[in-house]
Amino acid sequence: MMRLFILSLLFLGHGILRGATCTLVLHGQGLAAKPAVLYRYDDLLTRRLILLTRNDLNADGRATLMAEVEGRTRARLRVGEAVTDLYLMPGATYMLDLSVPSGKPRSIGATTALEVVFQDLDPLDINALTSDLNERIDLFVAEGLASDERAGMDAATTARQGGALRDTSHRPTTVYLNPAALLARVDSFAAKLRRFYAQVQDPFFQHELDYAIAGLYAGAQASPRHIWQQWIKGRAIAYGSPEQMRFLRGFFEKHLLMFPFRAQEQRLLASIRNAQRDSLDALVARHDFLRDDARLRELVWLDNLYTEYFGRTFDRKGMLDLMQQVERTSAFAEHRLLAANMRWDLTAMKPGATFPIMRLSDPTGELVEVNTLLEGPICFAVTASWCSWCAVEIEALKKLDAAYGKLVHFVVVSVDSSQADFRKLAGSYTSTSWHWLQAGADPLFMDALRLRSIPAFFLLNDRELSHAPAPLPSSGMVDVFHRLKVEAEQRNAIRFGSDAPAPTRPER
Fold this sequence. Notes:
Elements: E1 20-28, E2 35-41, E3 49-56, E4 62-69, E5 73-79, E6 82-88, E7 93-99, E8 112-113, E9 115-119, H1 126-142, H2 151-159, H3 183-196, H4 203-219, H5 224-231, H6 242-251, H7 255-258, H8 260-263, H9 265-273, H10 277-284, H11 294-307, H12 316-329, H13 333-347, E10 359-361, E11 367-369, E12 377-383, H14 388-404, E13 409-414, H15 419-427, E14 435-438, H16 443-449, E15 456-461, E16 464-467, H17 477-491
Helix pairs in contact: 1-2, 1-4, 3-4, 4-6, 9-10, 11-13, 12-13
């Protein structure tokens, strides 16, 4: 059975599709009572998710999700800890059978693949078409780029008999960098693909097919100028096309480091450090491929700033300032959205950001406004009873509490689905004064904190993040706590002979 992750998003601009309700009817074997959450992607570069709707599967593993969508929309469905991507169309109803592959490692970051089988899906539905295309391309690449030219076209047929769809939205970048690829074989395979799908009348799909083929040529190391002339020069940018956006990102990867940096290093560094947008744009415009295309040029350097943000070459504040300028004043609406999402992605849940507002349950089942607990220095921990590594770190946290508990307040959240497991876990630390809360397997909690793994620790001053993520209790957190203690003692200096009490944290 093949997995579904499907490519493509948002309306590409071919035809007008008005907004209407899309319905997903879910049946999840072994997924009873799991929360199901449906998102749409806000853009294809940051992949920021926007909540559409949610519902919990009932005791029989069934649920219905209904959401308003505008045009062809790329969406993400999360059920418990597993995810998959798919298309939504206005007015459409999709019947989905869901399952989580057995033997897969448990992942709090929702990286587990959710296997999806569409029931009674039209073969010309965009989900079926892109899945079929992706399957053929993946098999072609897996065969060593057509060691058998027929393999890429024929091997998918048997695999597709079960009705499941395949996702390749995360196709490895090595597909496009394979040095063994031979252009003649790519030519042959591309011609077969075009003939095979010639009768498909969907312009969106034909656009995806075109750029999927472009990606194969890039992987076969065709001449960059030939690729630019064939697939980039004079072509409109379809921001809703995952194949084109992935192709452009790959083609212009590290462009700033490969061209302006080598030619005028100091001017480039200064332009970014001082957020001199015109100067940066002028440097990028020196390249033949970008000289006459202001839209593509801005997209390239904006995306390069985003992907290089955590590198050591460019000034991060300058990069964020440049993104903010694009967000506010770019002539291209798509870039204003991209820049806003990039800044959000790079700064959300980072030091200086505000902790999100949320309501969680305490051991008695009462809902608690978490922000009411965030006063003074706070250590916020996320754990679970089934996480063995968590147990080691929570024990280390307990030792830190013994030494620094008068200065630091501890809020510990369990992502256990079972309330009994949560209570048992919290009950094993009754010697502490920690506030224990339960988030369960709620995907919204994990997304709000942008969790990818547990245990996770955050240090806050009131609701402002100070260390995100924080050092682990077993290695590094003690240094942060010690500095806090020294600062507290300096502010409340006690001299010999003084009657002043030792500094303590106010009782709660």
